[in-house]
Amino acid sequence: MGVSKHLMDKHYTILWANGNAYELTGYTKNEFSSRYQNKVDEYYKEDRETFNRVTRVIEESYYKQKKVYSFECPMRSKRGTVTWIQMNGIFSKETYRGVPIIWNVFFDITDTFDAKKELETARKDLDYELQKMDKMKAWMEAFLIELNYDICSLSNIITGMTDVAEIYFSDQKTCERCLKMIRESSRKLKKRIHKARSIFQEEAG
């Protein structure tokens, strides 16, 4: 567990830190001091977005007169690897030349953070699949309504033409017209049912 003491100046200058704190950075105390002059903003020079975000959390907590603050942030080590840490800080009553002093306690949460990211990704994938299913369900319902309408219409034509043909059985021309319409409607009905079956089989996998 890392512990550090900082001035709440524009650099968030490190006044003191334990060995675990430096170990998370991959630098020794002397290496860190020499490279970054104990200035946190220099350490995050290549990641200003993170520095600005965490300092905003600290400053907003301070001006709202909160006693503590907390956030998660990445730390890039000397080796280039990134460690995610949980930072918990407290505003002490100490000052140095009028500048407030803060204390931080932080620890590695990389495994937890990665697991949380994987869970979020899985949840997004699930939401996406559920949305696809909802859209498919809506489309299927509309398709079935349309299919039912087409089948009923074609069946009515076939039934109606059959009745007409029976009534005008002795009228060859009328019967031929009825038979022609029955054949065309039957062909359309078979085609529609075949298309519906193909769609259902495709969706079923």
UniProtKB/TrEMBL annotation:
SUPFAM superfamilies on file: PYP-like sensor domain (PAS domain) (SSF55785)
Alphabetical list of InterPro entries matching this protein: PAS, PAS-like_dom_sf, PAS_fold_3
Chain ranges of the PAS fold-3 domain: 15-92
One protein family per Pfam: PAS_3
Official protein name in the record: PAS domain S-box-containing protein
Taxonomic superkingdom: Bacteria
